[in-house]
Design brief:
The complex is a heterodimer of chains A (304) and B (273). Chain A is globular. Chain A has a two-stranded antiparallel sheet. Chain A has 304 residues and is mostly helical. Chain A has 14 helices and 2 strands. In chain A, strand 1 and strand 2 form a beta hairpin. Chain B is mainly alpha-helical and 273 residues long. Helix content of chain B is 76%, strand content 0%. The longest helix of chain B has 31 residues. In chain B, 51% of the residues are buried. About 3% of the residues of chain B have low confidence. The chains are: A mainly alpha (304), B mainly alpha (273). At the A-B interface, helix 1, helix 2, helix 4, helix 5 and helix 6 of A face helix 1, helix 3, helix 4, helix 5 and helix 6 of B.
C-alpha cells in the first residue's frame, strides 16, 4: 500500500526475473490454491452459467434443458412493456454510481488530509481500516438504531420530530446512508495510496508560480490521484452491484436491488435457473464496467 | 494554512462518522433496560443473558471453529501460492493473479449462490443426502481467504528480497528445508497476520455462510440476521459487541505483528481487500 518508488522497482524486478533460471521455489506450490480456486470458485461459476439455461421442474428441481427461456424472459422484460427487472437493474446501477460517488466525495478530503498533513499517518490509516475488518452486518444494523427518530441523541436535541418528518428508516435514503458508511474504507485506502506518493512540492511550486489553489489541484493533484480514484471506484462499485445486506436491513421492504432479486430466486421463489440468469446479467454488466475501466486506465497511462 | 485546519476538522468529523455507529452498538449493549432506545442505566446483564442463550453460544462456537479451520487451510494454501507466484513466468502468473483477485472482488451474492448450486448438485451426484453444513461454509470461506493470506504474505516475501533463499538453494538445500530454515522465520509474522485477518473475514462473513449452510449449522452472523427480523434488542447488541471486540483484537494484533516484524514502511501493509 505504502510502497516507495524504490520498493516498487524492486517489486517489479523481483517478479519479472521470473523463469530466467536461478534457484527459486517451485511453481507447483501454487497448485493446491489454484486447484481450490478452480474447483470451488470457477466451477461453481460455470455451474450457474449452465443452470441459467435450465428450467424448474416440480417444486424446485432443476432440469438442464439448454433452453434460452430465462434470458428470453429477461429480454422481454427489459425491452417490453412491464420492465420490472429492468427498473430494478437501473436502480441497482444508480445505487452503485451514487454509492461510489458519495464515498469518493466523503473519502477524498480524509485521504488527502492523512496523506498530506497528518503527523501519525499509519495510525490514522489503521483507524480507517479497522472498521472495514469488523462485521459488515453489524455496521449496517447500527444505523437501525441511529436513524430511529427515537434515538436518544435526537430526543435530547429535540430533533425527533424533524427526523421523523424526514422518513429515513426503511426508505432508499437509509440504504444510501448505509452504503456510504459501509463502503467508505474501501474508497479511502486506494485514494490514500495514490495521494501518499505525490510530491507536494510540485503543488507548492505551481502555487508559487501563480496558480490559484484550485487550479493547482486540478492540474497536479487530481491527475496524480486518478489511479487511486479509479481503483477505489472499482472496489466500491463492483460489490455494490450485488449489494444484498444493506437494502434488506435498512430499506425495509420498500427497496429492492439486483442482489435481493437474485437472493429471492434462491430463498423464496425456488427458481434457481432464473436466479442464475440474473446473476449472469450482473456478471455481464460488471464485465462491461471493467472493460470501460481498463480503457480509462489505458488512456490515463498514455497521458502520463 | 486555513485549508489545512479545515481539513483537520473535517478529518475529525470523518472519524466520528466511521466510529459512531460501532460505538452506538457497544454503548447500547450496556443498556440495563429492555428497550434499545431508552437508556435505563449501565448494566452487563445482556452479556450474561447472551452467554446463557444456547443458540448464541453454539453459534459462537461454530463461528470460531469455522474461522479457525478456515485460517489454517487459508494459511497453508495462501503461503504456498505466495512463495510460488513471484518467480513464475508472467503468462502463468497473470491468470493466477487475476483469479485470486477475482475471488476477492466478485459480488459476494454471486459467489454465494454459485457455491450453493455447486454444493447441492455435486452432493446429489455423489449421493450425499444433505450436502450443506459447516464444512461447505469452511470450503467456501477458504476460497477468498486463501487470497487474503496470499496478498499479505506475498507483499512481505517480495519486499524482503530473496538473496537468502537463492543462497540456500545454491548451497543445495531443497525447498522444504529452505522454507523451514530461511523463509519461515522471516515470513512467520506475515503468515500470522494473514491468518488473523482470514480468521476475522470468516468470523464476520454473513452472505456466503447464509447461502451454503445447512439447517443445523448457524454461525453468529446468521443468528444475528435471523434476530434482526424482530428488531434490534439489547441482547443482539451485546452479542454484536462481543463479535466486535474479538475482531478488533485480531486486527490490531495482526497490525502490530506486521509492524514489529517489518521495517517501518511495510508495517502499513494491511490490505484493504
Amino acid at each position: 500500500m505504502a510502497s516507495t518508488e524504490a520498493e516498487a522497482t524492486e517489486h517489479r524486478r523481483g517478479e519479472t526475473r521470473a523463469g530466467a533460471g536461478g534457484p527459486r521455489y517451485p511453481g507447483w506450490l501454487a497448485v493446491p490454491a489454484v486447484a481450490w480456486y478452480v474447483l470451488f470458485f470457477l466451477v461453481p461459476l460455470a455451474f450457474i452459467a449452465v443452470t441459467s439455461f435450465g428450467e424448474v421442474v416440480g417444486f424446485s428441481d432443476v432440469a438442464y434443458t439448454w433452453t434460452l427461456d430465462n434470458y428470453r424472459y429477461l429480454w422481454d422484460d427489459f425491452f417490453g412493456e412491464f420492465h420490472l427487472y429492468r427498473d430494478i437493474f437501473l436502480e441497482t446501477f444508480k445505487l452503485s454510481v451514487i454509492g461510489t460517488l458519495s464515498t469518493l466525495v466523503i473519502g477524498f478530503p480524509l485521504a488527502y488530509y492523512i496523506a498530506r498533513y497528518a503527523k501519525h499517518k499509519t495510525l490514522l490509516l489503521l483507524l480507517v481500516i479497522v472498521p472495514f475488518w469488523t462485521s459488515f452486518l453489524i455496521r449496517a444494523y447500527a444505523w437501525l438504531i441511529i436513524l430511529d427518530p427515537e434515538f436518544p441523541v435526537f430526543r435530547a436535541l429535540g430533533m425527533s420530530g424533524f427526523i421523523e418528518s424526514q422518513e429515513l428508516l426503511f426508505t432508499p435514503k437509509a440504504v444510501y446512508i448505509g452504503v456510504a458508511y459501509n463502503y467508505l474504507p474501501l474508497m479511502v485506502l486506494p485514494l490514500y495510496a495514490a495521494l501518499e506518493r505525490i510530491d507536494w512540492s510540485l503543488v507548492e511550486a505551481a502555487q508559487d508560480l501563480g496558480d490559484p489553489p484550485w487550479r493547482a489541484f486540478r492540474r497536479i493533484t487530481l491527475p496524480l490521484a486518478l489511479p487511486g480514484i479509479l481503483a477505489g471506484s472499482l472496489l466500491v462499485f463492483i460489490p455494490l452491484m450485488g449489494e444484498y445486506i444493506i437494502p434488506v436491513i435498512l430499506g425495509g421492504n420498500k427497496t429492492f436491488y439486483a442482489g435481493n432479486l437474485i437472493a429471492q430466486q434462491f430463498l423464496e421463489s425456488r427458481d434457481w435457473p432464473l436466479g442464475s440468469a440474473l446473476a449472469m446479467v450482473v456478471i455481464g454488466a460488471l464485465t462491461i464496467a471493467l472493460l470501460v475501466y481498463a480503457r480509462a486506465l489505458g488512456r490515463q497511462e498514455q497521458h502520463s | 494554512m486555513t485549508g489545512r485546519r479545515f481539513l483537520g476538522a473535517y478529518a475529525v468529523l470523518a472519524y466520528v462518522f466511521l466510529y459512531a455507529p460501532i460505538a452506538v452498538v457497544v454503548v447500547f449493549a450496556f443498556n440495563g433496560g429492555r428497550d434499545v432506545l431508552y437508556w435505563q442505566g449501565f448494566s452487563t446483564k445482556w452479556f450474561e443473558e447472551a452467554l446463557k442463550t444456547p443458540e448464541i453460544t453454539n453459534a459462537l462456537k461454530l463461528s470460531i471453529l469455522i474461522a479457525l479451520g478456515n485460517a489454517l487451510v487459508a494459511c497453508v494454501l495462501g503461503t504456498m501460492l505466495a512463495l510460488a507466484l513471484p518467480r513464475m513466468r508472467p503468462w502463468v502468473r497473470t491468470p493466477i493473479d487475476a483469479l485470486a483477485y477475482m475471488t476477492l472482488v466478485t459480488p459476494e451474492i454471486v459467489f454465494a449462490i454459485a457455491a450453493l448450486v455447486f454444493f447441492v448438485q455435486a452432493g446429489s451426484q455423489l449421493g450425499i443426502e444433505s450436502p450443506l453444513g459447516w464444512h461447505t461454509i469452511l470450503i467456501a470461506h477458504v476460497v477468498f481467504n486463501a487470497s487474503v493470506v496470499a496478498l499479505v504474505v506475498r507483499a512481505r516475501f517480495v519486499s524482503m528480497g530473496q538473496q537468502l533463499e537463492e543462497a540456500s538453494f545454491d548451497l543445495g538445500a531443497g525447498p522444504l528445508s529452505t522454507f523451514r530454515q530461511v523463509t519461515l522465520p522471516r515470513l512467520a509474522p506475515a503468515i500470522l497476520a494473514g491468518g488473523l485477518l482470514a480468521f476475522t473475514f470468516s468470523f464476520d462473513d454473513f452472505i456466503t455462510s447464509f447461502f451454503v449452510t445447512g439447517l443445523e449449522s448457524e454461525t453468529l452472523p446468521i443468528y444475528i440476521w435471523g434476530q434482526l427480523r424482530f428488531g434490534v434488542t439489547p441482547a443482539i447488541n451485546a452479542t454484536a459487541a462481543m463479535m466486535l471486540a474479538l475482531t478488533l483484537v485480531m486486527v490490531v494484533v495482526a497490525y502490530l505483528v506486521l509492524r514489529r516484524s517489518g521495517q517501518e514502511r511495510e508495517g502499513a501493509t494491511l490490505p484493504g481487500v
